[in-house]
Each structure stands twice: as C-alpha cells, then as structure tokens.
Amino acid sequence: MAYQAFYRVYRPQSFSEMSGQSHIKQTLQNALLYNKTTHAYLFSGPRGTGKTSTAKIFAKALNCEQAPVAEPCNECASCRSITEGSNTDVIEFDAASNSRVEEMREIIEKVRFSPANSRFKIYIIDEVHMLSNSAFNALLKTLEEPPEHVVFILATTEPHKLPLTIISRCQRFDFKRLTQADIVDRMVEVLTDAEIPYNEQVLKVIAQAAAGGMRDALSLLDQVVSFSGDEMTLEDALLVTGSISQDMFYDIAEALVAKDIGQALTLLEQLVRDGKDPVRLVEDFITFFRDLLLIQTAPDLHDMLELASHESRFEELAKQFNPATLYEWIDVLTKTQQEMRFSNHTKIYMETALLKMVQADAPALTSASQASASPELEAKVNQLEQLVIQLQQQLKNGAAAAPAGAAAEPKRRQRSQSSYKTPVGRIEDVLRNATKPDIQAIKTNWATVMAQLQKSHSALLNEAEPVAASPDAFVLKFKYDIHCQMAADNQTFSVAFSQLLEQYTGKAYTPIFVPDESWLKIREDFIKSNGLKSGAEERQAESEEEHPFSAEGEAAEEDPFIAEAERLFGKDFVEVQED
C-alpha cells in the first residue's frame, strides 16, 4: 500500500479521539443520546481544526446500527462504509469545485429519495462559502424544510461570506484554534503509535509553527520525520518550519539589553539571509518576550511557555529585564506587525522596531538616584509638594481647588494631541488614482453595508463617510480622532467591513482611515501640488472635467441615504427637502 500522510492515517474516528473542541463534542453527543438532532448544522472555524472530521464522526453516529449512541461503534457495516467513503447515503460535496447552481439543483432533486441502507441521508458540503448566490438561493428552501430523513452539515472557514438566511436555518458550531498543549499531545500519540523517537522541544517548535491547526501540525511533523531520518533534532525542525533557534533569541535579546544595535541588526540580517520571513520573526519575538514576562510574574507556570524552554539561561535572561521594558517592546512589535501588512519592505519595519526598542527610555530610576542625577528635578518635586499642601489647605477652608485656567490648560493640551498616525502617502495615492464610478459605487451601497454590520462595528461609522476612492482602496473620513483610532486598531472590523463591501460592489476595496482635520489638510495640499481646482471653481466651470472629490471632502454625488431610498421606492416617490 502507498505511503499515507500522518493527517490522513490518524484522522479521528470518534469524538474521544478528537483534540480540543470539548464544547462541540459534548453538545453533539448529548443531541445524539437524546434524539435531539436537527436537520442542518454549520461548522465554522480556521483550517485544520476538525470540521470535516467531526462531520464524518457525527454522520457515523447518526447512522450507527447501535444508535442512539454518543460514539460510533466503528465496527458495524454502516460505520465501516462511512469510514471507507463507500456509503451511498453519506454524500460529500466540495463547494469549491462545484459552486454552480446546476450542481446544487442535482443534489436537491435527489434529496426527496429515501436512504438506501441507513437511517439518514447526510450531505456534507465542504467550503460552502464558495457557492454562488444562485446556488445558495436554490439550496435555501430545501435547507429550511428538508425531508425527515435528510441532514445537512455545512463546513466553512469564512462564515461571514454566507447569506444570513442560510446561517439562520442552521445550528452553528464555531471551532476554535487548538492549543499548543493539545497539538503536542496528539503528536506524541501519533509518534508513539508509529514507534518513532521524539524530542518534546521539537514538537513545541512544530506546534508553534502550526498556529492552532492540527492538520498543519501533522503535515509539518511528517516533513520533519522524513527530513531527519532516524532521529528528529531541533535544528531539523527549525529548518523545516522556518523558525529560529532559542539561542538566536537569546543573542538578540542580550544585544538589545546591552543597547548594542549593531549586533542586533547583524543578527537580523543573518536571519533574513537564511530565508526567515520578517513578519514571522516579529510574531516569534512577541511570543518570546511574552514568555519572559510570564516567567517573571509567575515562575511556577513554566508549562505555559509557548516558544522558550524552561532552562537556567532563560531564567537568567528574564532577571535582566524590567517588566515595563518588556511591555513597551511588545507594544512596539505589535504596532510594527500591523504596519507590515501594508508594505512590501517588511525587513525595514523590523529594523526600525529594533531601533525603537534600543532607544526606548531606560527603566524608571529610584527617587534617590533621580535626586542625585538631577538637582533641578528635586527642586521641582519640592515645589509641587508645597503646592499640594497649599491646595489641601484651601480645600479645608472651602476655597476653590485650583484656578479654572490651570485645569483647562493641561486638558486642552491633552485633547490636541492624537496618537493616530495618518497614512498620508497611501491617501495621496488614492487621490491620484481616484475615479468617480468607484466613489459612487461605495456611496450607493453604503447604507446597505451599514445595515449588515455588527452593531459595535456600525457604531464606529456613525460619524464617518467615504470621501475618495480608487479601483482598489478608498478613504474613510472620521469626525472624531478617537473613532478613527479605534477603527484602525480593530483588525476584525477592517476585514469584515471590506469583505461585506466587496459583496455589494464587486470590488475588494481596502479602507484607509483619516480624521476630519487631517483629511482637509491633505486634500488642500494635494490640490495645490497638482494644480487642481477647488470645489467652488469646479461648480462654476461646468464645461470642465469633474474631479471625484470636492473641497469639503465629499463625493460629488447624491447622499447615500437618498440613493438607498430611491432604490427602494423609486425616484418619482422620493422628495428631498433641505433643512
């Protein structure tokens, strides 16, 4: 027999063999035992977390000759045929390669026929989000009221692409990424059964690279075993997975502590030459510094270390750090990771992050050392202490705590500061390539998209509007800086918003966020530098070509809510009255 990969040979055949997902296993087993199964299920979650395996196990349990049971027996004819893939009553359908409505209609026509040898006819539709809109519409009525002998199990990695009408007719189960401990335990079981010696540190490296997916972990394990031969080594695992050794982490961390930026950049250059991805490096460094922080605050929780191993050198390195420094470094790396998503020069971002970490402020000094280092600071502290005593005395006597101007000044200064860094270059790129059809498409569908968003997401856009758009991106202006910052920091919002907008416009637009004040300045500078006319001049020169944005930062077309009302009721029945 030909060699089979680990993830195929060791696919779970019962709920007890599944790793993690205890909330899903318990719910399905209770439904099986008490005959409370329904007609449609939706399994959603990241790749390699057990969606298809769970669907097959559930199908076996439903049609097991010993039913009702919480676990399939895997011995009866029905269980064996489903395991082998020869059962005609369990139909697996790949929506990725059969997305047209014709294939879906062929399935629906056969739904009404009773199962040949089993209690239920079960349809497992994998990657269901790949179906076309017509296929979804064809499936909708059957999914709502199928015959009693039919069960649908839909599996997807992108549930947000499914119509809400489909989701509402299914029991939804969200699969979570598997923990590193679950993945390591499963790999130990596989290697023990295969009689292959292993090193637990090697398995940790593989589990870290798998990022919560069991299939990815077993595939990498297969590669490491094939590459290593008789015995798996840490160097082999690092080479196959693209990770870096713990010694390299130690060397770079020690160089950063010693503020030896030359050594840190040299080591980084060596890693990049060896083929390491800077984006992956940032993620690994965040995890490594998290491990250092964990061993500092909770030395007994060494089992929770994700990247580093518990050894004396690691503990000695942890003692050299101040927790505030680790918090600051993790914050720098996290922001760098977000910025890398929009650039092809990821190595430069990584080098910049190392420079910021080295040049960060030193850990806070004690009051004694501060006094000895700065007599002026000591005098200032004494002055502030006297002021506090005076204010306390005034409060006792019923006087005002402080002049209004004294409190207003710091508040005004704080309000004028903004932590959001406006991406000026990307906005100017959109303005250079801006087209009127693109901004019209976004504005026309704006109200519909807003209605489909989660309430927490749509709340961010109450005071926002699209002001310019190119074929691949659009500028979204916010009235308040804080809303702009919150939207930029919320990756889930950005992805969901872009994908939902793509459904209605047919184009994948990347949103670029900008506060109101920054947008007006950027737009004014762009008009001046490119010799364009202002909005007032454009309206006067009717014979000249229109620009896709106006001086006030608004698209030169109708209000999106007016457009939506005209689409729903018709232009003849909509009358616009200006306040």
UniProtKB/TrEMBL annotation:
Any single Gene Ontology cellular-component annotation:
DNA polymerase III complex
Reported EC number(s) for this entry are: 2.7.7.7
Annotated region Disordered: where? 401-422, 533-558
- The enzyme class is transferase
Q: Which InterPro entries match?
A: AAA+_ATPase, ClpA/B, DNA_pol3_clamp-load_cplx_C, DNA_pol_III_gamma-3, DNA_pol_III_sug/sutau_N, DNA_Rep/Repair_Clamp_Loader, HLD_clamp_pol_III_gamma_tau, P-loop_NTPase
* Bias-annotated ranges (Basic and acidic residues): 535-549
Give a yes or no for keyword Magnesium in this entry.
no
Any keyword Endoplasmic reticulum? Answer: no
Gene3D superfamilies in the record:
1.10.8.60, 1.20.272.10, P-loop containing nucleotide triphosphate hydrolases
Q: Which residues does the UniProt record annotate as the domain AAA+ ATPase?
A: 37-179
Record field: catalytic activity: DNA(n) + a 2'-deoxyribonucleoside 5'-triphosphate = DNA(n+1) + diphosphate
Question: GO MF terms on file?
Answer: ATP binding; DNA binding; DNA-directed DNA polymerase activity; metal ion binding
The protein's UniProt keywords, in alphabetical order, are: ATP-binding, Coiled coil, DNA replication, DNA-directed DNA polymerase, Metal-binding, Nucleotide-binding, Nucleotidyltransferase, Transferase, Zinc
Coiled coil ranges: 374-401
Give the signal peptide range. Answer: none
| One GO term (biological process) | DNA-templated DNA replication
Q: Which family does it belong to?
A: Belongs to the DnaX/STICHEL family.
Name recorded for this polypeptide: DNA-directed DNA polymerase
Q: Which gene encodes it?
A: dnaX
